[in-house]
Amino acid sequence: MRGAFLFSVLIGVVLAVSASEKRVSDTSSEELFISPLKTGHVYLHFKFASSTPLKAHYAHTDYLPKPVVDILEKHSVDELHVRLTQGVFRHSKWGYPILSAPTGGEVWAWFKPDAEGLPEKWKGLTNSLSGLLCATFSKIDTANSLSPKWNFRPEGLVPGGNLNSSLSRYSMLPGENVCTENLTPWKKLLPCSDRAGLGRLLNSIKLLSAHYFSLSLDVTPVCADVACSQKRLAIEITATAVVAPGSLQDTNQLNWSIRDLLEMDLDTGCPLTDKSHILVDQSSQGQMVFWPSSTFTLTHSPSAKGRIAVYDLKHNQTWEKSRGLGGKSTARLEHGTERQPIISAHRFVAGYGQQNGGIRCVIENTHPTAAITVSYLEMLPWFLRVYFHTIRVKSLVDGRPIPLLKSHFGPGRDRLAPHHIEVIFTIPAATTVEFGVDFDFTLLKWTEYPPDAHRGFDVPPAVIGVKLDQPGGQCGDFIFPAEFSQLGGGQMRDTATASSDGQKRDTATASSDGQMRDTATASGCFLRLYTEPLLVSLPTPDFSMPYNVICMTCTVLALAFGPIHALTTKNFKLIDLAENPPLLERVKRKGQLLLTKFRKTPPAVVVVAAEEEDDQQPDVHDEDVKNSDSE
Amino acid sequence: MELAVLVGAAAAGFALRSGLIFSDLPKLVSQRVEFSVPTNSWQRVLEGSFLYDSGVDPYSGDIFHETPLCLVLFAVLKKRISCFGIDLIFPVLDVVTAFLLFFFARNLVQDTIVSEQKAKEKHASGTSKLLVPFADIVTVPRMVLLWYLFNPHIIGSCLEKTTSVFTNFLLAAMLLSASQGPSLLSRLSSLFFLALATYQTLYMFLLFPALHLYLLQNAPEKCRSSRKFHIARLVIHLGIFGGILAALVIGSSVIMGSWSFIRGVYGFAVFAPDLTPNIGLFWYFFTEMFEQFRTFFTWIFFLNICIYSVPVSIKLRHDPPFAIFTLLSLITIFKPYPSYGDVGFYLSLFPIWKRLYPHMRQSLVVVVMLLVAAVLFPILWKLWIEVGSANANFFYAITLVFVASQVFFVTDIMLAHEKREWHLMNGMKSDVDANGKAAELLLD
Amino acid sequence: MSNAGNPHPPGFSRPGAFYNLPKLCVTILLIVLLMSVILSWLPVVAQVAAPPGSKTTSHHTNNWAVIVCTSRFWFNYRHVANALSMYRSVKRLGIPDSQIILMLADDMPCNARNPRPGSVFNNARQHIDVYGDDVEVDYRGYEVTVENFIRLLTGRLPPGTPRSKQLLPDDGSNIFIYMTGHGGDGFLKFQDNEEITDVELADAFQQMWEKKRYNQILFMIDTCQAASMYKKHYSPNIVSIASSQVGQDSYSHHHDTSIGVYVIDRYTYYALEFLEKITQTSKKSLYDLFKVCPQSTCISTPGHRSDLLERRPEDILVTEFLSGNREVKPTHFTVKLPDTDDRDVNVSECFSCNKEPSKIDLENYKIYSDPFVFS
Prior knowledge:
Order of helices and strands of chain C: HEHEEHEEEEHEEEEHHHEHE
Mean pLDDT of chain B: 91
CATH class of the largest domain in chain C: Alpha Beta
Number of strands of chain B: 1
Largest sheet of chain C: 7 strands, mixed
Structural class of chain B: mainly alpha
Distance between the termini of chain B: 49 Å
Number of strands of chain C: 13
Distance between the termini of chain C: 100 Å
Structural class of chain C: alpha/beta
Radius of gyration of chain C: 29 Å
Strand order of the largest sheet of chain C: 3-2-1-4-8-9-12
Largest interface: A-B, 60 and 73 residues
Number of helices of chain B: 20
Strand content of chain B: under 5%
Number of domains of chain B: 1
Largest sheet of chain B: none
Order of helices and strands of chain B: HHHHHHHHHHHHHHHHHHHHE
Low-confidence stretches of chain B: none
Helix content of chain C: 10-25%
Helix content of chain B: 55-70%
Number of helices of chain C: 8
Oligomer: heterotrimer
């Protein structure tokens, strides 16, 4: 009896242990950050994050999308970042986004050190991504991808701690367009898809009419705590949109609501997530009234102004029907810029005609006293013949050349590799500089032009990486407060962290989904800017001409070959004209012979005439004429 | 008097070129496709040297197609001479080339007159006016000098600072040293210059058979009939030429540290992957090529350039300088990246054979076509590339006209040469044959 | 040759033997060859021997749909609307996205000219958004080429092609292939710079037949002179419907003044009207589908071809091609599934190994020290 009891206890313990082992070890959270801007737009940033313990092989994942994890495993990928964007983020009007993205598509990945056959793995990765996200990432191959040298460092853990930039691959597709067909499979990667929680708010019609819309997928291995005793694989799926409420045209006040912007109703959060928050940035709108009142608020660090209201959907947040969440401003819009950005860049094509041209990128540092060091990466397609010796950076204020602190030039190969320009230079305070490079256009093979060849070819955006110093308060000038990075993540990497359920800041705890990125330097935050993509037109051949060209060119070749062959194989001789009359003469005689046959003359007469012609040798032509006349 | 004319012409030519180079004109007409092609463009030389200085292999990209020695030479010059000095090198070299051609023309005319006088017994009667007159010793070299100095093709090529200037210099040096006589030094130097020219522009190796025959021409008469002599000479010449060329190539690989320049310099010349429009036939042909035929036609075009070398040399073995001239023009017509600099070079040599002019039948057509092409090239290029109202076919048509005119020129001049030879041997009349019957002079 | 050793006169074979051995061998060889030729033709004969209408039931187990729009540029908006209309019908009737290959040569919904981004309408009055919220385009933009289309049909795609871009039918698959764009007598234009001919299409279908990649194909095409595209079919079990005969143009239906272009073609408009009334349990047959859009409404005369079928069109339901219905056969025996355990990694699940999956050295993962210094 006791034995049976003990045995059942043992069984129970074993079952409990095994059950606890089968407890869900994945974490998942969803957040929406809303920031009404001074220009009358509303910045929306959806973030769906989930993580699982880092393993060699994932047989099963609870919240992480299995297709993504499978793709990572199959192609030996350590870190993956995918962006699909429509529109250009207007830094001068809206400030800086949480996550920067270039127009079109962008994929960059860090492969595991033991990955074999990197070109094939990269191609396999991009093919799989194209099938996963319904985008033409399969167009990515060696001709439009490169390994960046100083930019695009890993954002998470690096195996072995040593950086080998040949393990990274980066590519941009500026001609890629974003549409519902990309949003649909992307939504299916979320734990609750678009059925519950914040995923329900992703209304494709409203998001695709936005001034800026970007989808992204980031997969990084991270530490779960400061001591990094546990490592996790974190997947962040974000959507960013800058929308303008419909009422903006009627009134000069910014009145917005989720209902108005996205035409969807809020509900309780996704049941599978641990955390489901909506954060509303109340810092920039001093005269805006928000409703409903929030669950709690966070305050910024003293250096920045304002507050963030946090609505927790999981803790009985109620929404007024037909009102949802929104804000109403009590003052007129300023229609100014949100904040003067520290640094902004615009890029242009220089020159005219289709023979040669150039790229000019104007970068402006508006800080009055601090010089900023930037890293500039350009990936120019191979069909532009880039002259690296024309690369120059000069100040537009006084024309002085700016020295390059470091530079990396990788000449491109036709059809095999793009041109790789990476330079690092310092922009003095309150200065505008211009980066310039010249190139020639090439004529491609006729099969290499797209069906609409006269539209032109896309040149990917340039990437500018900037490290800003915290003490100068520059990091506070962002569209989002520093704390948000610890709640949700993003580009900001402060060492100070915040916990998610308090108004004070702890210095060392991590949020529940293991967002501790790295313990980088205490100074600074990192910003990545993308310029506009460019459109260049290449000279085009006439596409209907292959046969004609072959015929005509070979005719000219034959025009040379014929006479020279005759000259080299034959000698000049005097040819007896009577025995070997020229061709024209022979044709003439044959013609006259036929003519006489058709006239009503007996054949015998014709034979006689021919014999007569033979007898008379010189002046044959005259005799012919005479004879035919007499007939 | 003669000296004054020469010095005056040299000064004028030099002044013209320098004046233009240091004016604003190069900026306006920079990178004209007729003069600047991927193999001789100065912009690319600057690019290659910049990459070399930055520690990047210039041949790792697809932009630099000059030889490693040129790279090293330019690097050395940049350190020693200023930019101004480097710009001056081109007019100086042009004038030097003009003088080299002057002396070559004089040697050649003298040799021709001497040999014609020696062979006078073999000539038919009444053909004395076909012979080269003595006055030509003075007039022809002067014409060659003036034609070279004031040829717009050559001036433009110098203005654009193309490396055709160097190629022309090497070819002129080769011709002059070959014409100097039977000494070992002249033979060595002519083969050396040919090797240098081949090292820089691949297709010059096709001149070797004709040059070899030219070098044999000055050998003593009694040796000429022996077969062993011929074979020995061939082996020696081939050995010298091949040896110098191999030394240059291997030396370049040592300088560069790898063999990557073979693909960039010689592979490029054979396969012509760069389809930038120029005045040749290759670019549009390979733009519009069906993919499955690309390799086939690449080899056909390469063969087309090479195939004329030996037959023409053999046919014109009694007049090797003319064979060199003909081969030079054929190479220029059919090579993948011709430029006006190459065309101007052989056109400047034409006065040497002005005795053939009366026998040429298509001179009007050739001149008119050349003028039309010269006028229409820039117009149709601008219309296609800058204005956008024409398309590639217009420019291609003028390319065809230009190439056809050169083809007519070469075939005409070869025919004229053969006809003159025939007349010299058989008399002036060619419309009646020996029996008094009507006849015609035909190739048969 | 002397006959000294031979007692018989020349030309006379041995008594008792009625045959010459070499001649016998040759005769036998010839007979064997003839038999083999005849026998090898039998399967082909058997294939076409079954007269149309002889089979009565369908044997299809799954459905696929390939919907192709081949036209580029904004003024061909209606072709994208055609393709999306068919896509919507096919999805509504139950074929899942994983079994639909949608190829759109240009982006109309998110085109800069579209006054309503994210939507494609096929009807100016009713404003049905055929693009909608749940759409997966498998081949888009420059990927829609003749080569990709034929590779898709014949299954000869390059390795690494994702599964959503592959057509993976078997011999029980009914495939609905819909093509729309600009066409002519014997060709269909792709992307304004290349074309697929009727012969190429027929050969692609024959390759599919030989590889057993379909049970039956419904081929619907809405272009000018569409009937020319099916005249060269020679593989069995293909039924084709075209919007116009050879020498006729297909016409568009109406335009939307706010969008500025024609939004749908006539044949597809009326075909859609017909299909809107079809449900998964509908009993309409292909014969009814053939009668859609007569010349009075379509201006062109739609054509069809069903002689390659083994069954009569009246006996084939429309839902056999356009719906996700399938025959279900209940089994009477149980199937034992293997246990799955998180720790038990099945080697076949592991992509990158062909042996024991190696454990990564978790300890060796370190934090990269300073990603912001450009060194």
